[in-house]
Structures are given as C-alpha cells and as structure tokens.
Specification:
single chain, 312 residues, alpha/beta, Rossmann fold, UDP-galactose 4-epimerase, domain 1, 2 domains, 3-stranded mixed sheet, 12 strands, globular, binds serine
Length: 312
C-alpha cells in the first residue's frame, strides 16, 4: 500500500511529505505536483496536474494508493488574479480526488481547509466551529464548498475524509506561495538577510498563525485518530497563536536588535481584515486531543535559530 501527496512541492506539502516518509518509509509516499521539485523532494515523485482525472486514477492504481493527502490548491492572494481557474483547480481537483477515492480502494483522504472559509459576517474573536461562512475570496469560497463536499462524501458514501481549517503556517524549510499570511514567513528571511522588511499588511492586523511542526503534528494526530472520535467531517477549527505584524516584529527584535519594519499595505489587507483574529478550537481538543506546542516566543526563537543555520 502507499500514500499519495498532491501539491507535494508546496509550503505544507514539502514538509508533510518528509514527515510521512520518516514515518512510513520513503518508498511508500508518492509525492506529486504540477511542477518538478527543486531539490527538496526525492523519489518517488510523479508529475500530476490535479485537473487530469485519468492520470490521478492511473497513479492510484499503479501505486496501490490507500491514503491521499490532497494539498494541491491555489491560495487566497494568488487566487484573486484568476478566480475561474482557482475555483476549477481547488474545487474540481478535490471532487476528482473524492470520487476516485470512493470508487477505488482508497481508505482515507486528508483535505486542508483554512481560516479563509470565514468572512466579514463571521465573529472575529474566538471564532466558533459553526458560524456563518460567507468568504470574500474565491479561495475561501472553494474551501467552504470543499468542506461541504467532504462532509457529503462521508455521510453519503462513508468515505473516511478528514480536514483541518489551518491558520497561516510559519516554517523555515519551505516558502508559502501566494497567501495573505505569507508576510509571517517573509519577515524572518528579510530580517536575517537585510535587517529590514516592508510588510504588505498593516501593523495591527491580527491573524491566527501556527508553527509548521504543530501543523504537521495536527495532521498526523487527526489521521491516526480512531474514526469514532472524528465527529466533524467538514473542517476542524485549530489554533496555534494569534499575532499582528508589529508583535512579530517586536519579538524578532529581541533576537536581532537592529531589525526594522515598515508598512506598505496592498490588496491583501482587505482579505486579512475579512478573516478572524483568533479561533476557538475546543472541538478539536475534545474530539482527538489537539494541543499546540508553540507560541509566538518559542516559534520566533526556533525560526531564527533554524534559518541562521542555513545562512551560515
Ligand atoms: N495561508 C493561507 C492564505 O493566506 C490561508 O489558508 O491564503
């Protein structure tokens, strides 16, 4: 049996593939993406355009795939440049995965959802699990619809599909591509390389974030949990920390005293303002024991230490 990761060259996909390979053995985890890996991923790697339904089916049959981590998607900011394509890739890509999983021997599917499912009419502080979801980005729309389809495939066909609503992910080993929370990764690289960063969000914009090791651990715990504990089949709220660019800059300054931040917000500010600033993840804690390990201070310290090693 093997495991397929789509979008394996992305920010989360890269690290998730490594983690799955350490756990199950490299040869058992098939990395796939629309672009070739830039050195990070090793074999087995297959080229896969998620809109190529026939190719998905061939890969699942050829490698006897039993689990799929469907990470391929276009993120919130990039998605706004081409709404039709974003909907097509994000929603139709997922539908193909769910349908092939139902018709074959695939036993489990993981679908990453996001805080982008929420919108301006959602309560901003400690956003509950069940609230109005009227997002303003096409990325958010595709993820709300995706969550509903996951729930449908579980209820109607008993497909074991599990999902998490990720906040912005901060990590040192892979770069985000086209999201609204990307500033929280860029800031570290610029701080170490140039001692300064111009942030595309305003200083007081509070958003939920999570350190990469917590994000990977959350996926692993969720996917290993007994199915009877998984009471939500749309997407679980999960939280790590809630931070503003100015709080993050102040924390970085504790390690790099000469670091300077300036602000020059762009269209992403509006997207950020439509999202919650903190998340209530009680249900994930109750159902499968979720607990984050990193806060702003421990995350910042580790990020700087790890990135400094690369730059030596
Ligand atoms: N990090 C993502 C984005 O900014 C949110 O899911 O698009």
């Amino acid at each position: 049996m093997s495991i397929l990761v789509t979008g394996a060259n992305g920010q989360l996909g890269t690290i998730l593939t490594e983690a799955l390979r350490s756990k199950h053995g490299s040869h058992k985890v098939i990395a796939s993406d629309i672009i070739r890996p830039k050195g990070h991923q090793t074999d087995p790697f297959v080229m896969l355009d998620i809109l190529n339904v026939q190719r998905i089916g061939e890969i699942i049959a050829d490698y006897n795939v039993k689990q799929i981590y469907h990470m391929a998607a276009i993120l919130s900011a990039n998605g706004e440049w081409n709404p039709q394509k974003t909907w097509n890739v994000n929603l139709n890509g997922l539908l193909s995965i769910l349908e092939i999983a139902r018709l074959t021997e695939v036993e489990k599917v993981f679908f990453p959802s996001t805080i982008a499912v929420f919108g301006p009419s959602t309560p901003k502080e400690m956003t509950p699990q069940e609230v109005p979801m009227i997002p303003t980005t096409v990325y958010g729309m595709s993820k709300v619809a995706g969550e509903l389809w996951c729930n449908y495939y579980h209820k109607r066909y008993e497909l074991d599909v599990r999902s998490l609503r990720f906040p912005g992910i901060i990590g040192y080993d892979s770069m985000p591509g086209g999201g609204t929370t990307d500033y929280a990764v860029e800031i570290f690289h610029e701080a170490l390389e140039h001692g300064a960063y111009t942030c595309f969000l305003e200083g007081q914009t509070s958003l939920p974030m999570m350190y990469m090791p917590d994000a990977i651990r959350a996926i692993m715990i969720l996917m290993d949990s007994d199915t009877k504990n998984i009471r939500i089949r749309s997407g679980y709220n999960i939280a790590g920390m809630s931070i503003t660019p100015s709080q993050l800059a102040a924390e970085i300054t504790k390690h790099l005293p000469h670091f300077e931040i300036t602000y020059h917000s762009d269209f992403r500010q509006k997207i950020a303002e439509s999202w919650p600033s903190s998340i209530d993840d009680r249900q994930a804690k109750e159902d499968w024991g979720w607990q984050p390990q990193y806060d702003l201070s421990t995350m910042t310290e580790d990020m700087i230490q790890q990135l400094a090693k690369f730059k030596e």
